[in-house]
Amino acid sequence: MSCLIRKSISEKITQIVRNNNVYYELETPLKRRTNTLGKPVLQWHLKGNGTKSASNLDILKAVSALKYDSDLIEEVRTVQGSGKTPDKVEFVLRETPYVQTLLQEPFEHVPKRNEHMVFEYSSPNIAKPFHVGHLRSTIIGNVLANIYKSLGYQVTKMNYLGDWGTQFGLLQIGVEMLQITDEEMRRAPIETLYKAYVKANKEALVDESIAEKARNYFKQLESAQQSKKLGQQWQKYREYTIQELERVYKRLGATFDVYDWESQYSQTHIVQVLQALDSKSLLLPEKDGRKVVEVDDRRVPIIKSDGSTLYLTRDIAALLDRWQRFQFENIFYVVENGQSDHFKACFHTTSKLEQAITMSKLKHVKFGRIHGMSTRKGQAVFLKDLLDEARDIMHAKQIQSPTTKIDVNSHDVADVLGVSAVIINDLKQRRQRDYEFNWDKALQMNGDTGIKLQYTHCRLHSLLEQNDHVHVTNENLAVECLKEPEALDLLNELAKYPQILWQAKENLEACILVNFLFGISNATSRALKTLHIKNEADRRKQQHRLLLFKSAKTILKQGMEILGLQPLNKM
Ligand SMILES: NC(=[NH2+])NCCC[C@H](N)C(=O)O
């Protein structure tokens, strides 16, 4: 993915305000619209320094002191806010330079920033199937990391796979009971491990000794008494699992720089954590032999009575280790709402152990549940089945559709479409919201879906391809060539892009970018209806329109790639 974004008018205005030494910083522009005279207008809130917000009087003073480039800006005024909302500053722009700048400004590299951001997401357990929560974590985490990257941050994308805990002992019992061969495991590791897990759980229901055996197994494993052979065997299972997961990640457009395992944090690291907790007198003994820490009056277990460690203990060790490795500015854990208490305990305890890891560096990025996400035949256990189903439905639709332009014998395009639908359906909601999954809605061509974004991208691609003989350049622009409201609308939409990325980053909400792309899509369809190329006799107009559509395609493509979509040229 490239990290090009468009330098926009808003940046220019930010510069003007900075150059004027205005004490108050501009927030991202709120609105871009035309005023009653049809002139382009940008509105901004002014933000105070630090926590103090600007008073209306301050804003007035700041604005009246503003010196600006009157070739670009016609007028600067304040607009009264209502009730609690503060006043805004409005920049009335001169249309010609405004349009020219939008069309002319080169797509340039965002300056690199030094802050290192770590994103942990996906993080499934190999003992259990990849469930919908992991799907959400995968796509939300991937997009947020991509947004930060596109804004110039140093980003590490991390997956933290669950392969430790009592379940792991249970899994080993299942593998033995079913006498699973290496070949079977290599062919379908996720399914096979799941089979073993189900088997052991089922047996445990009728045979009480199994749970006990599993606990013992795990304790043995953890105290490093395991045979070398067993260790190697599990190493192999892990490798197979990653290989299989990567096939699914590839379809989802998700990538990782680092794969970590819970089992990495079983021995040396844990001992260090326990010593550190002890030396700060944070580790409290319970009567039953457990050891706990106190978090907001809750007593949270760190060590079980048999001495083995817990999920939380390993997370504390992992966080300390990540700090050593990355010296991050922030670390983001993209994990469902349900684990709030866990992360609270982890963050509180770790920041007490290492002062440099302040609470403000640690972020639990929560998200809600999806209901009803199963294949149409029944419960979806594996993510792969779900994506296959989306692909098959899209394939059937393509065979029926009169507008299909590709060879329907290939499933590749159908797969990209199905996956796009699943991703966008998820990302268009605010992440904390629970929602109901609906196959028909997700796969619609006309609603706000991934299919629509793909369709717009294909239309723009074919338009530019058909007209590649027309010379398109952004020199000698004549604004009169783009007078139509549809053209100005599309331009206005495109100009929002840098602020949209910034807002999506500030709120950690991918839906801000998704809705922006729907806006681009709609403005593009309207523009395509009125701004013809072939039937337009004026060559200059043709060129300007193509330039506009080219910008639309570039931004749409880039936005889609940030979301993990693979933009199609034909469908
Ligand atoms: N650092 C973490 N605890 N990340 C989240 C891990 C999620 C865990 N493997 C689960 O599936 O529930």
From TrEMBL:
<feature type="domain" description="DALR anticodon binding">
    <location>
        <begin position="453"/>
        <end position="571"/>
    </location>
</feature>
<keyword id="KW-0030">Aminoacyl-tRNA synthetase</keyword>
<protein>
    <recommendedName>
        <fullName>Probable arginine--tRNA ligase, mitochondrial</fullName>
        <ecNumber>6.1.1.19</ecNumber>
    </recommendedName>
</protein>
<dbReference type="InterPro" id="IPR001412">
    <property type="entry name" value="aa-tRNA-synth_I_CS"/>
</dbReference>
<dbReference type="InterPro" id="IPR035684">
    <property type="entry name" value="ArgRS_core"/>
</dbReference>
<dbReference type="InterPro" id="IPR008909">
    <property type="entry name" value="DALR_anticod-bd"/>
</dbReference>
<comment type="function">
    <text>Catalyzes the attachment of arginine to tRNA(Arg) in a two-step reaction: arginine is first activated by ATP to form Arg-AMP and then transferred to the acceptor end of tRNA(Arg).</text>
</comment>
<keyword id="KW-0067">ATP-binding</keyword>
<keyword id="KW-0547">Nucleotide-binding</keyword>
<keyword id="KW-0436">Ligase</keyword>
<dbReference type="GO" id="GO:0004814">
    <property type="term" value="F:arginine-tRNA ligase activity"/>
</dbReference>
<dbReference type="GO" id="GO:0005524">
    <property type="term" value="F:ATP binding"/>
</dbReference>
<comment type="similarity">
    <text>Belongs to the class-I aminoacyl-tRNA synthetase family.</text>
</comment>
<dbReference type="InterPro" id="IPR001278">
    <property type="entry name" value="Arg-tRNA-ligase"/>
</dbReference>
<dbReference type="GO" id="GO:0032543">
    <property type="term" value="P:mitochondrial translation"/>
</dbReference>
<dbReference type="GO" id="GO:0005739">
    <property type="term" value="C:mitochondrion"/>
</dbReference>
<dbReference type="GO" id="GO:0006420">
    <property type="term" value="P:arginyl-tRNA aminoacylation"/>
</dbReference>
<dbReference type="InterPro" id="IPR014729">
    <property type="entry name" value="Rossmann-like_a/b/a_fold"/>
</dbReference>
<dbReference type="InterPro" id="IPR009080">
    <property type="entry name" value="tRNAsynth_Ia_anticodon-bd"/>
</dbReference>
<dbReference type="Pfam" id="PF05746">
    <property type="entry name" value="DALR_1"/>
</dbReference>
<keyword id="KW-0648">Protein biosynthesis</keyword>
<dbReference type="Pfam" id="PF00750">
    <property type="entry name" value="tRNA-synt_1d"/>
</dbReference>
